[in-house]
Amino acid sequence: MAERDVVRVASGQGFWGDDLDAPVRQVEGGPIDYLMLDYLAEVTMSIMQKQRARDPEAGFARDFVPLMERIFPTCVEKGIRVVTNAGGVNPDGCADALVEAGRRAGVAHKARVGLVTGDDLMDRLDALLADGHELANMETGEPLSSVRDRVQSANAYIGATPIVKALQGGADVVVTGRSTDTALTYGPVIHEFGWSPDDHDRIAAGVVAGHINECGAQCTGGNCLVDWWTIPDMASVGFPIVEVSPDGSLVVTKHAGSGGRVTRASVAEQILYEMGDPTTYITPDVIADFTTIQLDDLGNDRVRVHGVKGGPATDFLKVSIAYSDGWKATGTLTYAWPDAAAKAQAADRILRERMDRLGLMFDEIRTELVGWDSTHGPLAGPPPADLPEVQLRVGVRGRDRASVDRFTREIAPLVLTGPPSVTGFAGGRPRVQEIMAYWPALIRKDAVQPHLQVEVRDV
Questions:
Q1: Are the C-beta atoms of residues 283 and 183 closer than 8 Å to each other?
Q2: Of 31-45, 92-106, 181-195, 398-412, which gets the smallest average pLDDT?
Q3: Strand partners, 439
Q4: Measured between alpha carbons, how far is 236 from 296 in angstroms, rounded to an integer?
Q5: Do 162 and 176 contact (CB within 8 A), yes or no?
Q6: Element housing 47 (H / E)
Q7: Long-range contacts of 229-232 (CB under 8 A, 24+ apart)
Q8: What DSSP designation does 179 have?
Q9: All residues at 6 or more sequence positions from 93 whose CB lies less than 8 Å from its CB, including other chains
Q10: Domain check: are 300 and 390 in the same one?
Q11: Whether 345 and 310 share a structural domain
């Protein structure tokens, strides 16, 4: 394969629920080589696991399948390859649905689907614990055995290697489970340029490219602090495209004529997103030093990124574990002027007194007054006397489902047995939801990597 001068990897999805038309605009709006679609977050894995518990054929991003049916012909015609973690906790089911979507879209015998499995550790969990892998909580140090009976899912964050293998096998669309977000971008770049595993600086640059890409329009003007009110045409915001060169330098841009803005400030904001220690951004394939990043604003929605340094990867992979942790419910009422905040506070006191009298048991009760203190908490200061309205939002969580269920029946009575000028209960009784808590852990790579499998299927 002849080496390209540049590889264009476009972001089409920053999270499950993002702009449904953004991937369409990316494949139709101008030249790109790859489309990466990032669907997963820790909370998303929990949602998918709950869906699969109800339906064994669920557990992946179902929005992805009709999207691909829509863009498959264009991708095949233009030679655009797609890399996604839409497989969630059921990548095999996602790949099956994708093959059928490709046939409906008329690309049978014209495309291949790559499937990466092996990140799911659920079936191996007891054996791993027996072999001495404690899977201790990275934040508390507790061993997983303390919640083992409540674990619902366990997935290791995999890196670029299986993605590269699938692309080498001829896959036009690669579906993974819990891939790291950044690998969806730097995997294709490694494949195209043939970077070796010890080429730490260039792979680290690919990680930076992936970090810039992973949140979609957040680096092209969305959720942007700097002069946000001046950013043009956000209704048709352009999603980012990273143009990566063989030396690891890259340019962040977007399709000409699309909305939004790419500037040094917008890119820098995204680089700082979810940042811990900037010198040690750990991925399965490399450790990137974000303090070495250099940014040059080239104008015309183009920002050059260069100078990135990296070091050897660790011997561990991160594991995302979800476990059942009780039940929760949230109820709301809205109180109007005059004395809106005082009425809401009084309603909260009445509600708590009634729940105490009933002997309801909760691990936590949280009250917010939306419109006054829900964003800034104590920093909001005392409520202004002229607040036109405020929403009382009360949430409870606990292991006793009966208590949580009874809470949902104690909100409505406040309409006639609490302070005046109340509204906002037309939606009915709050819904009880199971809590899926997050348990981050580490595991040695040699316990996961031998079990990773790559399969390429014809459409």
A1: yes
A2: 31-45
A3: 321
A4: 26
A5: yes
A6: helix 42-54
A7: 231/259, 231/260, 231/261, 232/259, 232/260, 232/261
A8: B
A9: 57, 58, 59, 60
A10: no
A11: no
Asked whether residue 137 is domain-assigned, the answer is no
**322, β-bridge pairs:** 153, 438
Quick one: 204 and 292 in the same domain? yes
Helix pair 64-78, 91-104: axis angle to 10 deg: 60
User: How many whole angstroms separate alpha carbon 339 and alpha carbon 337?
Assistant: 5
403 is a domain residue: yes
φ/ψ of 126, rounded to 5, equals: -65, -40
Distance between CA atoms of residues 232 and 5, nearest Å: 31
Give residue 2's pLDDT band: very low, low, confident or very high (50, 70, 90).
low
**pLDDT of 444 over the 60 cut:** yes
The DSSP result for 396-434, as a single string, is EEES-HHHHHHHHTSSTTHHHHS-SSEE--TT-SPPPEE
Q: Examine the domain organization and report whether 30 and 107 are in the same domain.
A: yes
Structural domain contains residue 445: no
Q: Tell whether 380 and 425 lie within a shared domain.
A: yes
Looking up tokens 């790109």, which residue turns up? 32
Check: CB of residue 106 under 8 Å from CB of residue 73.
yes
- CA angle 210/216/222 to nearest 5° reads 130
DSSP state of 449: G
pLDDT (tens digit per residue) in 93-136? 999 999 999 999 999 999 999 999 999 999 999 999 999 999 99
Residue 162, CA distances (Å) to 197, 268, 406 in order:
13, 30, 49
13 and 39: one domain?
yes
Q: How many residues does the chain have?
A: 459
Inside any domain, residue 386: yes
**Which DSSP letter does residue 5 get?**
S
| Number of compact structural domains in the chain | 2
Task: Measure Cα distances from 298 to 9, 81, 224, 295, 308 in Å.
Answer: 19, 28, 19, 9, 18
Distance of alpha carbon 317 from alpha carbon 315, whole angstroms = 7
Domain span at residue 411?
A: 324-438
CA-based end-to-end distance of the chain: 23
Collapse the DSSP code of 10 into the 3-class scheme (helix H, G, I; strand E, B; otherwise coil) and give the result.
strand
Residue 199 has pLDDT above 90, yes or no: yes
pLDDT digits (tens, 9 = 90+) for 400-415: 999 999 999 999 999 9
1 has pLDDT over 70:
no
Q: Judge if 289 and 346 occupy the same domain.
A: no
Q: Are residues 56 and 33 in the same domain?
A: yes
Strands 173-175 and 34-37: unpaired
Quick one: pLDDT at residue 194?
Answer: 96
CA distance 302 to 305: 10
Between CA 254 and CA 237 the distance in angstroms is: 9
Residues 100, 419: Cα–Cα separation, whole Å = 57
